[in-house]
Amino acid sequence: MPEAYIVAALRTAGGRRGGRLAGWHPVDLAAQVLDALIERTGIDPALVEDVIMGCVSQVGEQASNVARNAVLASRLPESVPATAVDRQCGSSQQALHFAAQAVMSGTMDIVIAAGVESMTRVPMGTPSALAAKSGLGTSVSPVMQARYAGVEFSQFTGAEMLARNYALEKTQLDAFALLSHRKALAATRDGRFAGEIVPVVVRPADGSAPGEIHAIDEGIRHDATSESIAGVKLIQEGGRLTAASASQICDGASGLLVVNERGLKTLGLQPLARVHHMTVLGHDPVIMLEAPIPATLHALRRAGMKIDDIDLFEVNEAFASVPLAWLQATGADPARLNVNGGAIALGHPLGASGTRLMATLVHALGQRGKRYGLQTMCEGGGLANVTIVERL
């Protein structure tokens, strides 16, 4: 069976809600990444056979197949098809899996996996909020309600359940949050993100002429301290998590160019990494955010690997309780986890986070001369994707 290779991995720097990317229509922002993949590899854009793009809130400016609209806003020709994927926070990680499966099957040779989310222009929860306002009902059906009687499906409740079940105290969660900012700050200062970031021009909300370049993650708190993080208000009364120990609302886009051996020969490119294994797993939808743990263990078994075989891990920091519980359950080396910081500092642009994490992971493996990387993330509904890659 053919292999799947990643030959380019790029992302925008994250933008805070209402910040430096707020002036970008999400379609145009995604198109910037598509164009950058073409420009940096120098390939003929007409050779791209599909674009698979993750996006969670597919409504408003992100509606009507945001992937196809991004193609039409890019340098890619009209002949390039595209489709949008929603596996909640794992949407663009699933886009990578679909792209890899396509080239491994031999039905396609050259595919772009990407993601986009403007959480400024299309706020989180907009589809459900609009449906409720219009009297269109809820996505939780009567049969679901009967099966999970009295249950509120909430990521915030799930995050607190995870903290309690794994005996994670607020001081531990706060300390992890501070470390995320410090690692992200060090990576920025050392230029470790330079190869993965697509610089884009800031478009001021007041309509004034653009000029500044956005190339540094806006969410990193350069002045974060233990005291400042500890002082943030709890999300839930009696809980342990705060906005400081949760991922930041973020605008962003990201993308990967995925090919097989025939694609490599056609394009004349060298791969950054090979997709070694892919897993997706369902788990308890009530605690919801615990799924990366069984999914990781399942992936390692299927791949015939042990946790210590993996050199670097990217576990999405939706809440600090997620990677901390994951570390505890898997026995992974904390020094190998999110070495350049995570979503607590860099932001979590929902549908763009999957390919954002992979871009960071692939570049980090190259910079450190390491071989294997594993990426996983919690997803709404109690789901988790796991991807293991081998640097080449």
TrEMBL record:
PROSITE patterns: THIOLASE_2. The keyword Transferase applies. Gene3D superfamilies: 3.40.47.10. Residues 270-391 form the Thiolase C-terminal domain. Residues 5-261 form the Thiolase N-terminal domain. One of its GO terms (molecular function) is acetyl-CoA C-acyltransferase activity. The active site is at 89 (acyl-thioester intermediate), 348 (proton acceptor), 378 (proton acceptor). Keywords: Acyltransferase, Transferase. InterPro entries: Thiolase (IPR002155), Thiolase-like (IPR016039), Thiolase_C (IPR020617), Thiolase_CS (IPR020613), Thiolase_N (IPR020616). It comes from the Bacteria. Coiled coil: none annotated. Belongs to the thiolase-like superfamily. Thiolase family. This is Acetyl-CoA acetyltransferase.
